[in-house]
Structure to design on (201 residues):
């Protein structure tokens, strides 16, 4: 068993917050353990709680369409969430729940070691951006240490308001160029670089 698989087994029986009491299945994440791209959403929903896999409902189908639009499939990326168990009635995850899960996400990032993390929604956006709204920073890459973060609206937003679909599609279309730039310049010198100073883009 790999370290990533062992971590996921730990997540499946995690007792660290109240969500463990109401979940049917924890949802560690899935995809390539060596992915260059990690996609991080908010929390599992109804279908994810039933199946134990991330993004398997309507938002997941849209996400697969987005991946296909840049010639990728979900087994070529790694998909997970900030919170690994479904909040009751799909409410927003609470801060203590996010904090309880934060160590799991940090370890997943260490083990997968992606070049690019695509944050889906306002909660995972806070991995790189704090104190701003997603409407102001979506589609703007930002380097933090050795990883570039690309914030986007959550795919579920497009299911509720059609105006978000084109915004998500436009932001997703930037991914190949960003990856190409990263591969040409290597890991860089670390530190944090605001998007307007990312010369590789």
């Amino acid at each position: 068993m790999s370290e990533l698989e062992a971590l996921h087994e730990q997540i499946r029986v995690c007792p660290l917050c109240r969500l463990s009491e109401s979940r049917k299945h924890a949802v560690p994440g899935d995809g390539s353990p060596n992915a260059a791209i990690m996609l991080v959403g908010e929390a599992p929903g109804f279908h994810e709680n039933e199946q134990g896999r991330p993004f398997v409902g309507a938002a997941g189908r849209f996400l697969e369409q987005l991946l296909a639009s840049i010639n990728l499939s979900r087994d070529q990326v790694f998909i997970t969430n900030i919170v690994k168990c479904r909040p009751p009635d799909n409410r927003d995850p609470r801060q203590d729940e996010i904090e309880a899960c934060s160590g799991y996400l940090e370890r997943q990032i260490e083990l997968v070691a992606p070049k690019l993390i695509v944050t889906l929604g306002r909660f995972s956006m806070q991995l790189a951006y704090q104190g701003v709204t997603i409407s102001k920073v979506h589609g703007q890459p930002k380097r933090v240490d050795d990883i570039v973060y690309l914030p986007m609206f959550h795919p579920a937003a497009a299911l509720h308001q059609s105006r978000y679909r084109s915004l998500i599609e436009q932001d997703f279309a930037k991914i190949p160029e960003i990856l190409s730039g990263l591969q040409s310049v290597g890991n860089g010198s670390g530190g944090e670089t605001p998007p307007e100073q990312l010369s590789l883009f």
